[in-house]
Specification:
Distance between the termini: 81 Å
Shape: elongated
Number of strands: 20
Protein name: MKS transition zone complex subunit 1
GO biological process, one term: cilium assembly
GO cellular component, one term: MKS complex
Oligomer: single chain
Main location: cytoplasm
Organism: Bos mutus grunniens
Number of helices: 7
Helix content: 10-25%
Structural class: alpha+beta
């Protein structure tokens, strides 16, 4: 046999594309296979001496130029391209059968085709997303192989929840016709709105496999391929493109069983290098304009960090002091920057004094809760990046004092702590003889990027 390998995998394949679906092109090749075809395809060298070459007994072509036993068609079909069947040609030629505007449109197209020489195909035709067949097919198709199948509620809902929403775009500033939130949904509302709806469009590539000269009967129509495209660019093809696999086969039913083979190939045009370059230029120009727009939103007042400099932002809080002898405590603190390579703005205050706070008993100790926030910033610029030239880090000095009845102050203790150089949440306790807690929130990043928050 000339064709011994058939593709039995008729499952669907899913593709994703960001290109417009209107550029999709499929080539469909359909051919009738009979026993006489196999004999005709054998080379003459394989015929023995006692065999007669059957080529002399081949029937002569008919008046239309088609041989009934080896009809063959090939056509390239675009997305939602309408190819009429013989049944539709006979139907829409009768003006009384046209009931909708789409029917009248099809009638005009068929009349133009007849005037220009007829259809380019006899057996291969299509049903688009607007045809009645698309709706009826999705309502009538079965989910199982059971003879008496009863469609479930979910099947009915998914059949009714179809498409035609991708082109519905509300006008800007329009008033919503439905409420965004339904506070008291009814049972019917819940049943009708819990199904997820992904708008899609469907197209069927069909074939009329009736006997030659008797085309146009619904019972002879067979689906060659089903195409579905949703609004997210997902393309579902059933069956998959033939590619390197063997052709698909169809066996007709009835008294005269016939065997047909067909292939489906993706012949969509690839983008030319000039088009790709033009697309890249368009995207580059678009991104450049978007960058300029973002820069205009930021403005020119945004202060940039000096290249190669480390800018340090510190947001701290003097939390509490505990374990001291006297009441009415307050803390005097200041930050010392290393003399080399560190600097701070002239307006920056690197010192502060908390409010006076009375203590309260907490266990065996008396605790004064300050919750006094402070903030400062500093910059480090050092061109020497060798290991021996590691930078010194700022130090926070604290002095805990107390006030007596006569507004005289007493020094309760001193302490110092180096600002942590390792990011991560932690709690710093100043060793001032007793205990003084300080919480840090430090931003350590270039101002050209969004600063992130670190707690020390």
């Amino acid at each position: 046999m000339a064709e011994a390998i058939w593709s039995s995998d008729t499952g669907e394949a899913v593709y994703r594309s960001r290109d417009p679906v209107r550029n999709l092109r499929l080539r469909v090749h359909l051919q009738r296979i009979t026993s006489s075809n196999y004999l005709h395809c054998q080379p003459a060298a394989q015929l023995g001496k006692d065999l007669i070459d059957l080529a002399t007994f081949r029937p002569h072509p008919t008046a239309s130029g088609h041989r009934p036993e080896e009809e063959e068609e090939e056509v390239v079909i675009g997305w939602q391209e309408k190819l009429f069947s013989q049944f539709e040609v006979d139907l829409y030629q009768n003006e009384a059968a046209c009931q909708s505007p789409l029917d009248h449109q099809y009638r005009q197209e068929i009349l133009k085709l007849e005037d220009s020489g007829g259809r380019k195909t006899r057996r291969i035709f299509t049903y688009t997303d607007s045809d009645r067949y698309t709706n009826l097919e999705e309502h009538c198709q079965k989910m199982t192989t059971a003879a008496s199948e009863m469609p479930s509620f979910l099947v009915e809902r998914m059949a009714n929840v179809r498409r035609r929403r991708q082109d519905r775009r509300g006008t800007e500033g329009g008033i919503l016709k439905s409420r965004i939130v339904t506070w008291e949904p009814s049972e019917e509302f819940i049943r009708n709105n819990h199904v997820i709806n992904t708008p899609l469009q469907t197209m069927y590539i069909m074939a009329d496999l009736g006997p030659y000269g008797k085309l146009g009967y619904k019972k002879h129509e067979h689906v060659l391929c089903t195409l579905k495209v949703d609004s997210n660019g997902v393309i579902t093809v059933k069956p998959d493109f033939t590619g390197s696999k063997g052709p698909y086969r169809i066996e007709t039913e009835g008294e005269k069983q016939e065997l047909w083979k067909y292939t489906i190939d993706n012949v969509s045009s690839l983008a030319q290098p000039e088009e790709e370059e033009r697309e890249q230029r368009v995207f580059k120009d678009l991104y450049g304009r978007h960058k300029e727009y973002l820069n205009s939103l930021v403005g020119t007042d945004f202060e940039m960090t000096t290249p190669g400099a480390l800018r340090l932002f510190v947001n701290g809080e003097v939390v509490s002091a505990q374990g001291y002898e006297y009441d009415n405590l307050y803390v005097h603190f200041f930050v010392e920057l290393p003399t080399s390579n560190w600097s701070s703005p002239a307006f920056q205050q690197l010192s502060g004094i908390t409010q006076t706070c009375a203590t309260k008993s907490w266990g065996m100790d008396n605790v004064a809760y300050f919750s006094y926030p402070f903030t400062f910033e500093a910059s480090f610029l050092h061109e020497d990046e060798s290991v021996d030239a590691l930078p010194e880090w700022p130090v926070l000095y604290c002095e805990v004092l107390s006030l007596d009845f006569w507004q005289r102050y007493r020094v309760e203790g001193y302490g110092a702590v180096v600002l942590p150089a390792t990011p991560g949440p932690s709690w710093s306790q100043v060793p001032s003889g007793r205990g003084c807690g300080v919480c840090w929130t430090v931003w350590r990043d270039s101002a050209s990027r969004v600063p992130f928050k670190m707690c020390w």
